[in-house]
From TrEMBL:
This is Reverse transcriptase domain-containing protein. The keyword Nucleotidyltransferase applies. Residues 130-195 are annotated as: Disordered. Residues 230-246 form the CCHC-type domain.
Amino acid sequence: MLTFATGTLTDDALSWWNAYAQPMGIEQVNQTTWTELKRLLTNKYCPRTEIIKMEDKLYNLSVKGNDLKPYVRRFQELTTLCPNMVPNNEKLLEAFIRGLPRSIEGNVTASKPQTLEEATNIAHRLMDQIIKRKPVQETNNHKRKIDDRRNTTNNNNYPNDRNNNSHSNNQINKNNYPNNRNNNNRNNYHHQQQNGRQEIFKANGNRGYNGPHPLCRKCTLHHTGPCTVRCQNCHKVGHQTRNCRS
């Protein structure tokens, strides 16, 4: 493991390792543990100021959007570079779950995963369920917005329609009122003429009239109200044809 890791070093890192290993000899260098190698590399290429920056990035790391893969990859990189922040498995799982979306954070915690791989699989499964439900929720929300707009439009138009109908009915009643009044006057006048003609007819058909209707001086007939007898010659009201002077 140590031989493979040091064999991948290049440029300045390779020069640094050769300068470190040559004085010690190959046998002693091969006895270096993996933990010791990481400590040497950290001290050389990761000063404390850079480690603090990476620790802040790890603490504030969270999922962006609905894609967990970039988050998991970056989390693994930072935990490797900042081992002091996740000294045990419990702290590692706590840091991983803290960066998950709130929609699945509680469910992952309730599942009580024992390893990072298990927590990652649970988070992926829950996120896939949310992504599948999202189009259905968007469709329902779109329909709800359309229904709300229709209801709002109908409610706004109802008072106007009612006012317009009332205004139209009032206008119609106003327009018809003079006509109705004129029609009533015509009907009354027609009835008066009919009554007068009936009384005149009775008076003509009964010589020696003794009824209650007075004698009209214009037409010399018995009737009530204004004289309605019309001359057939000059078409004037108030005298009979036989008494027409024209």
